[in-house]
């Protein structure tokens, strides 16, 4: 760092001076300064990775903040956001400090070597020897230079410990801040996903009640009213109307059961994810190859998220993709040490083209998976096939 850091700082300083000097020369200076910004960001990324690897600091990599708006204005805002990135400047400050300490350490090591060589002065015929800073000492006093060599060695070792202490404090602090920010961002995303999932689910329930069960129950009431009017004059017709109302009532009950099953499958609580998915596969209009290999039960939120994602994937395969078969695979994966994940994949041989539309079924399960802290990936090119993959953290 004493050599490379000093050269790097000199080059960046020269580039900044050149950019400022040419800023009014057809905008060339602005391009130079823009390149300096990218170079500084890359240098900060390198410094964080270097300290994290050298001292085993659990630091997240420095990532470029993307633009949030399209167009040139969005690009400028993105540049400003990255220019004001606190972690970047903290890492650059650590790089500068490490370069200064490295330069001092180089001087200490050179002085140490010089003092060791000078200490052998009595073995020569010279009456005096030269030590750092041009000081002359007699050959008889030269062996005492070994003490100064030890002092220089102690300075070098002390600089190493000083660098470790300062670097881990700076990079570690930014790592903790980054971790907290990531936790806040993740919590915010999960909360928003839960709110959207609840809204989509409420809209679906309202739509199913309004378009299905409600008019059917109204029809049952009207049919029973007609039967009541004709029960004295035309008993046979009244009986026929009662039978019709009875059939409609059973259909309404079936629709209500399907509606409640869409809110939460009670078989999940009773028998677990394997049995619930077996029931879904059994009701599917297309053949389903179900492959579930799980060591045990998991928390309700994780199982529900995976269950509804698979159920929606099979529903889309049967209704929209015109698939003739589907395959479901469910496993437990350890994507992070000590933190198991429920992983599932639904594949079909349909026409593809599935998209996440606001308020649609895929939008609902996406929000549900995000609210559970998981991820979802949908690969459905035009012409097929379609693959839906979810991964949800779980507790067994």
From TrEMBL:
EC number from the UniProt entry: 2.7.13.3
GO molecular function (one): kinase activity
Coiled coil: none
Pfam families (UniProt xref): HisKA_3
Domain Signal transduction histidine kinase subgroup 3 dimerisation and phosphoacceptor positions: 201-263
Signal peptide: none
Enzyme class: transferase
Record keywords, A-Z: ATP-binding, Kinase, Membrane, Nucleotide-binding, Phosphoprotein, Transferase, Transmembrane, Transmembrane helix, Two-component regulatory system
Transmembrane regions listed in the UniProt entry: 20-46, 95-121, 141-162
Reactions catalysed according to its record: ATP + protein L-histidine = ADP + protein N-phospho-L-histidine
Cited PANTHER family: NITRATE/NITRITE SENSOR PROTEIN NARX-RELATED, NITRATE_NITRITE SENSOR PROTEIN NARQ
Protein name: histidine kinase
Species this chain originates from: Yaniella flava
């Amino acid at each position: 760092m004493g050599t490379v850091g000093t050269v790097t700082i000199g080059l960046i300083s020269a580039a900044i001076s050149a950019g400022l000097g040419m800023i009014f020369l057809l905008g060339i200076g602005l391009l130079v300064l823009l390149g300096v910004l990218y170079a500084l960001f890359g240098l900060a990324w390198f410094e964080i990775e270097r300290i994290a690897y050298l001292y085993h600091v659990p630091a997240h990599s420095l990532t470029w903040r993307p633009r949030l708006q399209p167009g040139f204005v969005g690009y400028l805002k993105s540049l400003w956001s990255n220019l004001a990135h606190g972690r970047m400047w903290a890492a650059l400050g650590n790089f500068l400090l490490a370069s200064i300490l490295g330069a001092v350490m180089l001087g200490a090591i050179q002085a140490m070597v010089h003092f060791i060589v000078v200490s052998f002065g009595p073995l020569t015929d010279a009456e005096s020897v030269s030590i750092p800073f041009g000081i002359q000492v007699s050959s008889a006093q030269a062996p005492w230079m070994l003490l100064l060599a030890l002092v220089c060695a102690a300075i070098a070792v002390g600089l190493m410990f000083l660098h470790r202490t300062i670097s881990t404090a700076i990079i570690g602090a930014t790592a903790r801040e980054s971790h907290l920010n990531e936790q806040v961002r993740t919590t915010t995303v999960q909360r928003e996903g839960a709110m959207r999932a609840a809204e989509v689910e409420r809209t679906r329930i309202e739509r199913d009640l309004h378009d299905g069960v409600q008019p059917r129950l109204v029809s049952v009431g009207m049919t029973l009213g007609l039967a009541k009017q004709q029960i004295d004059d035309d008993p046979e017709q009244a009986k026929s109307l009662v039978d019709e109302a009875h059939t409609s009532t059973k259909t309404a009950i079936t629709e209500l059961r399907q509606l409640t099953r869409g809110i939460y499958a009670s078989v999940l609580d009773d028998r677990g994810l394997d049995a619930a998915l077996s029931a879904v596969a059994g009701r599917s209009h297309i053949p389903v190859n179900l492959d579930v290999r799980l060591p045990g039960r998991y928390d309700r939120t994780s199982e529900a998220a995976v269950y509804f994602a698979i159920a929606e994937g099979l529903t889309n395969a049967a209704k929209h993709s015109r698939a003739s078969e589907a395959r479901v695979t469910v496993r437990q994966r350890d994507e992070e040490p000590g933190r198991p994940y429920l992983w599932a994949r639904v594949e079909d041989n349909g026409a593809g083209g599935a998209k996440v539309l606001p308020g649609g079924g895929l939008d609902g399960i996406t929000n549900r998976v995000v609210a559970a802290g998981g991820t979802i990936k949908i690969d459905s090119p035009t012409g097929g096939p379609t693959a839906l993959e979810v991964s949800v953290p779980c507790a067994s």
